[in-house]
């Protein structure tokens, strides 16, 4: 078994073998306490879907091999020897992965990219209170498993699209962040594109000047951008009010003193878009909050 093969073994199974249990979990991800130190709040996020782990406390990425190395304090060859016990799991996982990739490559195709026109998509944008921000979006028609689908597309830096509609949330092609630059000395960072669109809707209310923008498209992408912020004088963070958001903000503030947690704007809501939907901010919001924000 080589490293590429070993890293297909589900990280959760590896952690279970060491009797390491999650602190919080859902079907797609879980938080664990750090593997290399004591802590009161779990900072290791394991993504079950992509079989990756990320430590918000140190910024380290983990796979199955490095998980074993960290716990056992051993070499790569020793870690591979430990992982041999999961060879049956690996073989089954490899077969399933190969089948998924083959099925996806044969059936996945973007058929139409155009301006948003479909009534269902316009209605969905209206329900999210961002129907006036279609200049950042496309209407994407695609086929998966010979079935026709369509959704709102938000393009990332690698040419992939985050696809959303009322019933699904997927990424077509390569996952990546989205950056929008105007050579500003300020940058605003968002977890998802609906939060970015929501901010654009209240930017004037908050008396904010346009800036550079980074949309992570997943909090797990934060490692890709943390070293690209040194030249910014102001860094505003608009993440979700959850544990992953807390860790992400803490990590960025630890590496850049100019990073500012701006979630006080929507502290009673899950995220910025929820605040826009349920609070229906108006000019009174600008007056109430403008002193807490930099121009």
UniProtKB/TrEMBL annotation:
One of its GO terms (molecular function) is zinc ion binding. Transmembrane segments: none annotated. Coiled coil: none annotated. One of its GO terms (biological process) is DNA replication. This is Toprim-like. It comes from Halpernia frigidisoli.
